[in-house]
Design a protein that fits this description.
With about 200 residues, the protein is α+β, with helices and mostly antiparallel strands. Helices cover about 15% and strands about 35% of the residues.
Length: about 200
């Protein structure tokens, strides 16, 4: 009889331990995953000091399918002209379209746009961009709450005429990674677009 009592007590203890362990596992909060933005359309908008507008766009032809954004236009700028570059970034699978640019601005401490361009394409900034070296000059007009650049608003002065230039924009998603020294290879790439660039 004593052995049966001990066996019952042992079974009760094991079952109680199992129940408490199961409850603790149920109550564990899963780690929050970084949601990937769905981007179907990106438009670069160059606005000159005189108000002239030049646009170049890319579009994802199959939405959430396997294809990436496809560049539709080349960029044509006037030599010696200063432009402000802004972006329209949309998810047009939604109706009405969702402005992903607003989301990027709200999460400015997690995003940065990096640039690469043909050497000499611009007189300001000089060089070839900051995709290869984050400390290279880019005229960022916007920053996050920590004073680090974002890139939804930048300034460019077109250099000497060329018909064979290129201009690349790369949006990096950098949650818990972005710092004053983080670069274009830190975090995940939301998009990278290579445009042909003509300076007239």
């Amino acid at each position: 009889m004593k052995n049966i009592f001990k066996l019952n007590y042992l079974l009760f203890a094991v079952l109680t331990l199992f129940v408490f362990t199961a409850c603790e596992e149920d109550e564990a909060i899963p780690e929050e995953e970084n949601e990937v933005e769905v981007i179907t359309d990106v438009t670069l908008v160059f606005t000159s000091d005189a108000g002239a507008v030049v646009t170049a766009s890319a579009q994802d032809p199959d939405g959430e399918g396997v294809q990436e954004l496809v560049v539709k236009d080349e960029i044509k700028l006037q030599s010696g002209t200063t432009y402000t570059l802004t972006f329209e970034v949309m998810n047009n699978l939604e109706s009405p379209g969702e402005d992903i640019g607003e989301e990027i601005a709200e999460e400015d401490d997690e995003h940065q746009i990096f640039f690469a361009f043909s050497e000499g394409a611009f007189s300001n900034p000089t060089g070839n961009g900051n995709i290869d070296n984050a400390s290279d000059p880019i005229n960022y007009n916007d920053t996050d709450g920590n004073g680090n650049p974002l890139g939804l608003n930048t300034t460019w002065t077109a250099g000497n005429p060329t018909t064979a230039g290129s201009f690349t924009v790369r949006l990096q998603h950098q949650p818990d990674v972005k710092t004053a020294t983080s670069g274009a290879n830190d975090g995940d790439t939301d998009f990278e677009l290579l445009f042909r660039l003509t300076i007239e």
